[in-house]
């Protein structure tokens, strides 16, 4: 019987402090047993439990795309017991990864459609994976126009500048990166994510929107999409309730009858409208 | 299938004799209450009880259970690699379990042993266990097993059903595992016709007198959001002190937490029963908590048992009708009344 609670051993191959406040740090992880990489077949939108012996596990969205090879990327916010320890771990240290867990963004159903991706703050992680996956030569032709709208409070809080600055140079994706208030040295967009959405005004015809961000961003972005005529079925979101087991058994992360860890974390707005708002 | 008649003394001796083949758990009297305990030297089982105060769920699913162990010794090449904690899966028997508590195992089995994931520890502990049930001659005033698909002599899920006929026990094997258990006792005598008739009569008279009548027939028709937004939750939760007693005593509550514990350089990953009655249960790293208020947590408990589970598995409620939460709630919150409110909404 396969034990769903046992993590794959991995080694930290690289770390990077991502933000000026040093709250977010990226970890590139390599499987110690190369065969484990085959067992870890994932799709953008899924997450994994990062395991640190002596501290516990923490569920984190997978920021790498499977098109990038076997190395996994996770970007971790320093907030609690496990993540504090993680931030103090170094290249070469051994830890564990358990997963992949949960469902993914509906990449199959999105084929043939225009895709609008809206990210706020560090919720961009699994959307980085999604954009990377879509832009891969094997996949790009399957989708129509791609808009990527991403905002953070300051330039120093934006993640993955190496990636999105490359995306900005391409002509097969429209990349709208914004900060809340103007600062010296920033030549990009200025304004909150909902405002930028209003300006970009993505058309709902034959389109899907993936929206991920802090509750306040969601609250003000939703009316913008409503006004543009988007239907709840077209809006896809990702939840992150507190989790432990990650496989729908420990009973912690439910939203109504659905477990965020197993039935989610990705839900359409139409699905969420029928569920209690306990997230 | 065989039915064997034991005098009460024969039965006690037979169980003692089986302790080489099985780890046997029996009800014993502790103060004013009964508890399941391992049958060891000097332990006297007491089958004259209504039900144990705490359900036997911990025999399959311990309140605190080691999942993995590891070393943090930097020199050890295996440092920081989790290994499965050793477990004892030798055959065990729960003797004297009430039909409601067996029904509860069948309810939680759907959670721990599902088509997508199998919880290896729960499954292996359950598979190594023989369930020897004891019919209820005197259901409690708080019992309502017949309203949730069970009954005082309900045989489903049991390996053996035992009838207490006053001066003797009548043990009826229901599975091969059960028959094997009875054969190993090498005691008792094949039940004769009058004994079989007495068991039948007992069952009939108890069932006739037992009529708890909690109606839950409309729960599956209700919309989740209608029940969730019902006006009665604040009132239902008003007296609740969030002590969590209901969740710990409930044989169908399965929620757990996972924690790491380290002593010197040796660590364990363990799981502990947890409770949706506690605000920490859903507190997120960011400080956000989707269930900060008491009534939200009380609502979660009842909605899970009486609606979410009903919708998910389409086979009744997540409640065995044992009545422990009704009996031991310090502020008298009664799941039967809440079920009625929900059913009649």
Write the layout of secondary structure elements.
The complex is a heterodimer of chains A (279) and B (345).
Chain A: E1 8-17, E2 24-31, H1 34-39, E3 47-52, E4 56-61, E5 72-77, H2 81-87, E6 94-101, E7 114-120, H3 125-135, E8 146-152, H4 161-169, E9 174-179, E10 189-190, H5 193-200, E11 207-212, H6 215-227, E12 235-238, E13 254-255, E14 258-259, E15 266-268, H7 269-273
Parallel strand pairs in A: 7-8, 7-11, 8-9, 9-10, 11-12
Antiparallel strand pairs in A: 1-2, 1-6, 2-5, 3-4, 3-6, 12-15, 13-14
Helix pairs in contact in A: 5-6
Chain B: E1 3-7, H1 8-17, E2 23-30, E3 33-38, H2 57-60, E4 64-71, E5 83-84, E6 92-97, H3 99-112, H4 120-127, E7 129-134, E8 160-164, E9 168-173, H5 176-185, E10 189-190, H6 193-209, H7 224-228, H8 233-237, H9 245-249, E11 256-263, E12 266-273, H10 294-313, H11 324-328, H12 335-344
Parallel strand pairs in B: 2-6, 6-7, 7-8
Antiparallel strand pairs in B: 1-9, 1-10, 2-3, 4-5, 4-12, 8-9, 11-12
Short overview:
The complex is a heterodimer of chains A (279) and B (345). Chain A is an alpha/beta fold and 279 residues long.
Question: Strand arrangement, largest sheet of chain B?
Answer: 3-2-6-7-8-9-1-10
Distance between the termini of chain A: 33 Å
Radius of gyration of chain B: 22 Å
Q: In sequence order, what are the helices and strands of chain B, one letter per element?
A: EHEEHEEEHHEEEHEHHHHEEHHH
Please name the CATH architecture of the largest domain in chain A: 3-Layer(aba) Sandwich
H/E topology pattern of chain A: EEHEEEHEEHEHEEHEHEEEEH
Shape of chain A: globular
| Most extensive protein-chain contact, per-chain counts | A-B, 45 and 53 residues
The tally of strands of chain B reads: 12
Secondary-structure-based class of chain B equals alpha+beta
Question: What value does the Rg of chain A take, in angstroms?
Answer: 18 Å
Share in β-strands of chain B: 15-25%
**Quaternary status:** heterodimer
Structure class of chain A: alpha/beta
């Amino acid at each position: 019987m396969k034990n769903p609670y046992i993590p794959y051993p991995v080694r930290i191959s690289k770390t990077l402090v991502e933000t000026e406040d040093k709250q977010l740090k990226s970890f590139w992880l390599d499987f110690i047993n190369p065969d484990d990489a085959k067992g870890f077949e994932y799709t953008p939108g899924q997450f994994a439990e990062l395991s640190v012996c002596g501290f516990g596990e923490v569920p984190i969205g997978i920021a790498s795309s499977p098109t990038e090879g076997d190395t996994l990327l996770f970007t971790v916010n320093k907030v609690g017991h496990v993540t504090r320890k993680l931030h103090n771990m170094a290249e070469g240290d051994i830890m564990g990864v358990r997963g992949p867990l949960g469902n993914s963004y509906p990449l199959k159903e999105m084929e043939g459609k225009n895709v609008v991706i809206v990210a706020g703050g560090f919720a961009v992680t699994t959307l980085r994976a999604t954009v990377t996956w879509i832009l891969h030569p094997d996949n790009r032709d399957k989708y129509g126009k791609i808009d990527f709208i991403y905002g953070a409070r300051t330039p120093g809080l934006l993640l993955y500048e190496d990636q999105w600055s490359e995306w900005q140079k391409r002509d097969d994706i429209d990349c709208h990166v914004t900060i809340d208030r103007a600062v010296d040295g920033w030549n990009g967009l200025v304004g909150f994510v909902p405002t930028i959405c209003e300006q970009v005004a993505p058309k709902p015809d034959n389109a899907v929107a993936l929206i991920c961000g802090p509750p306040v961003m969601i609250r003000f972005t939703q009316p913008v999409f409503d006004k543009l005529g988007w239907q709840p079925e077209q809006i896809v979101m990702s939840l992150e309730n507190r989790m432990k087991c990650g496989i729908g058994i420990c009973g912690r992360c439910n939203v109504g009858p659905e477990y965020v860890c197993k039935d989610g974390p990705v839900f359409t707005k139409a699905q969420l409208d029928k569920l209690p708002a306990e997230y | 299938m065989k039915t064997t008649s034991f005098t009460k003394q024969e039965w006690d001796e037979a169980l003692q004799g089986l302790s080489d083949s099985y780890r046997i758990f029996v009800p014993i009297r502790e103060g004013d209450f009964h508890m399941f305990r391992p049958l060891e030297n000097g332990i006297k089982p007491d089958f004259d009880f209504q039900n144990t105060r705490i359900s036997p769920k911990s025999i399959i699913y311990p309140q605190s259970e080691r999942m993995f162990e590891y070393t943090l010794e930097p020199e050890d090449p295996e440092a920081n690699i989790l290994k499965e904690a050793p477990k004892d899966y030798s055959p065990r028997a729960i003797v004297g379990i009430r039909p409601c508590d067996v029904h509860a195992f069948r309810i939680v089995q759907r959670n721990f042993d599902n088509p997508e994931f199998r919880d290896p520890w729960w499954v292996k502990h359950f598979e190594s266990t023989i369930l020897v049930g004891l019919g209820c001659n005197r259901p409690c005033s708080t019992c309502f097993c017949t309203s949730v698909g069970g009954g005082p002599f309900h045989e489903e899920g049991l390996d053996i059903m035992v009838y207490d006929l006053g001066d003797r026990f009548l043990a009826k094997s229901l599975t091969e595992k059960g028959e094997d258990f009875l054969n190993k006792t090498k005691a008792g005598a094949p039940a004769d016709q009058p004994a079989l008739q007495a068991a039948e009569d007992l069952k009939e008279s108890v069932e006739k007198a037992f009529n708890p009548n909690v109606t839950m027939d409309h729960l599956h028709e209700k919309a989740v959001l209608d029940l969730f937004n019902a006006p009665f939750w604040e009132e239902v939760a008003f007296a609740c002190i969030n002590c969590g007693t209901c969740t710990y005593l409930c044989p169908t509550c399965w929620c757990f937490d996972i924690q790491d514990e380290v002593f010197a350089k040796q660590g364990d990953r363990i799981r502990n029963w947890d409770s949706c009655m506690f605000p920490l249960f859903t507190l997120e790293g960011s400080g956000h908590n989707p269930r900060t208020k008491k009534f939200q947590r009380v609502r979660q408990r009842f909605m899970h048992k009486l609606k979410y589970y009903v919708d998910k598995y389409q086979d009744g409620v997540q409640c065995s009708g044992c009545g422990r939460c009704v009996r031991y709630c310090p502020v008298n919150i009664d799941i039967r009344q809440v079920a009625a409110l929900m059913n009649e909404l």
